[in-house]
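From: lab user (bench 3)
To: helpdesk
Subject: output format question, protein + pyridoxal-5'-phosphate

Hello, I'm new to running complex predictions and I'm not sure whether the block I got back is the full result or only part of it. Here's what I submitted:
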Amino acid sequence: MNDPDRAIIERFGRHISPSFVRLLGVLGYGRVFTRAEDVWLWDSKGRRYLDALAGFGSANLGHNPPALFEAIRAHLSRDLPGILHVGPSSSAAVLGEALSALTGDALDVSMLALSGAEAVDSAMKLARAATGRRGFVSCEGGYHGLDLGVLSIMGTGRIRAPFEPLLEHCARVRFGDIDALDAALRKHKPAAFVIEPVMAEGGAEIPAPGYLAAAKSLCQKSGAVLVFDEVQTGLGRTGRMFAHQREGVVPDVLVLGKALGAGLVPMSAALTSRALHERAFGTMDRFDLHGSTYAGYALGCAVAVEVIARTQNQALLDNARDRGASLRDKLRARVGSHPMVRDVRGDGLLVAVELGAKPDTLLRRLTAAAVDAVSEKVLGQWLCVRLLEHNVVAQPATQKWNVLKLTPPLTITEAAVDTLVESVGAILDAYPDPVRVLRDAAVRVTEQWRAKGAFR
Ligand SMILES: Cc1ncc(COP(=O)(O)O)c(C=O)c1O
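Helpdesk reply: Thanks, we reran it on our side. This is the complete output you should expect:
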């Protein structure tokens, strides 16, 4: 390892996150990435990697898109005030109008924020303030961020537990189960039902056709605000501007983040209707019930406006739809019959390969419990380390570790799709059953422990 790398690792480990650096070492993720362009990343040794993670779906336009740099330079040359809370900001006004236009002006007021969690949190506050109710219903396996408010609606107990007690009156229902939602809305009479139209970190789960429309009518009947969290699926990821356009269901609140800042600046927004916003924050003594210093900062707004304009390019959306379909088809053909591949699914360029023994195979009947335990804890992370060795960056779904989630930039080419498929295929070819994977993973982890988690 060269000295600049060592200096970065030591400083990061000492001053930012010691446990993260240890984990990277133990798992075998020892790389320092130094350059990014479009769908490619480079490490300090000059090795090039295909990025199938894209900052967890942030770099939809590719890394460091030149058009955004031009927009940033043009914005900076205007010497506008960066943060302005004593008058209307022209940058925020332009962004608000552009966001509203994306929804056909159905959701014409935007609450601007910096992170996805913050924007979902603002949607929750809006729902409480507008309805006067307290509770929330969300989905098992759903992911909405890690701040204290949104943790209350987190779908995974492991991540909630250390921070409890969280908000009271929060209930979870099975994703896509309309009867369970009906029962929960009747029982809890919540302020809002918060759902991802495609559950991203929960493993790229897509609800059955008709579910979102039925959920909307149940929410309307119950008086609950319907919040679609499209922090990960929004802005072209699914080949449509928004995942919910699959069914043409307009929510009461639409939350965007990640790609809105293009991986360059933090930007997020909760879009809602003027009527709902009025109910929550409409009077002068309520205007300051929500906000933050950097909300609507000028540079972020300028980047987001440019992101929206670039994402409205139909060729980009078509590329996301077509390359996504091709990625799924080619993965199914290449690894679909592998004994450890249970499913290949997704929507646009949010693609999942679910790993684990197939149901009803002899292997499964003989070793069901052991295989499930291995799948859940090891398989996804093991495959991602192996992919890194094949010069591909990817991660498992954070709430379902046996699911490999592929979310490359929307600019990916068919040749890069082929590279991705071939990398997954070549790795799985060498490991025809979970026992060999377990053995390989155990050997690797033991070696790394012996090396005291050396970053390599
Ligand atoms: C659907 C969804 N909502 C909210 C968030 C939280 O966003 P952030 O990490 O910017 O707070 C994420 C992050 O992965 C997400 O996928």
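A quick orientation on your result: The mean pLDDT is 93. Let us know if anything else is unclear.
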